[in-house]
Amino acid sequence: MTRLEGKVALVTGGARGIGRAICAAYVREGARVAVADRLEADARETAAALGGNAMAVGMDVTDLGSIATGVRAVEDAWGGIDILVNNAGIFNMAPLGEITPEDYRRQFDVNVGGTIFAAQAVVPGMRRRGGGCIINFSSQAGRRGEPNITIYCSTKAAVISVTQSLALELAKDGIRVNAIAPGVIDTPMWDVVDGLFAKYENREKGEKKRLVGEAVPLGHMGTPEEIADPAVFLASDDARYITAQTLNVDGGNWMS
Ligand code: NAD
Q1: Active site includes 200?
Q2: Fewer beta carbons within 10 angstroms: which end of the chain, N or C?
Q3: CA dist 170 → 110, 121, 175, 244 (Å)
C-alpha cells in the first residue's frame, strides 16, 4: 500500500541531495511532487527523472514573490498542497572573527526565513483543504553548538523553535508541523565544505567521508534515502498524532 496516495507535496531544495531523495520517496508512495529549487534546470532534470507525478518549480525561498508564484503554479496544476517540506538550506563555516553580516543574513534568510515564508504561502491553501503537514529541516547542528559553525548552528536551532511555534499555532487547522534533524548525510553539501574534514586534512575526499562515517555510532554517513524514509513517515497518517517534534535521524551521532 502506498502511504501518500492522492497527496500533493512541495519540496524546497528538491533538485538534489536530501530533497531529491524525498521527492523520489514521495512519488514512490503515491504522491504528486513539486520539485522546487533555486537551481531551476536541476529541478527540471529531477522532475523529469521522476516521471509524470513530478513537476519542476523554479523557486528561491528568500524571495517572497518567487515563493508565491511557485505555490500558485502547484495549486493551479494540482488543486492544492497537502505537504510542504522545507528542505532548502545552505551551510557555511567561519570562525567568529571572519563572520560577515552578509553571510549571517544569507544563512538566516534561507534556513529560517525560507522556512517561515514558504509556510506562510502554503498555509491558506492547507486551511481551505482542512489540514496539511509541514516538515522543516533542522540539523544535529541545531541541537548543540559546533566550533566555527556559529551561524549555521543558530539557524538550525531557530528552525526547532519555528517548528514548535507553528505547530501550536496551526494545530487547530489540522496542520501538523514537525522537523527532522539529520546527522552527517552524504550529499553535495559536503562536497563544497572542506572545513568539515579539517581533522582528516591529508586524506582524499572518499577516505575523509569514510572516516567521518566511522565516527558515527551506526558506523556510516547517512544516505539521503535514510532521511527520506522518515520524511515519508512524518508526512503519512501513521504520524497523525505527532506534531511540534524534531526527530533526530543521525545514526546516534549527536549523542556521541
Ligand atoms: P544540498 O546542498 O545538497 O541541497 C540543498 C538544496 O537546496 C540544493 O538543491 C539547493 O539548490 C537548494 N537551495 C539552496 N538555497 C535555496 C534557496 N534560496 N531557494 C531554493 N532552494 C535553495 O544540501 P543537503 O545536504 O541535501 O541538505 C538538505 C537540508 O538538510 C538542508 O536544510 C541542510 O541544512 C539539512 N542538513 C543536511 C545535513 C548533511 O549532512 N547533508 C545535515 C544536517 C542537516
Answers
A1: no
A2: N
A3: 22, 14, 5, 10
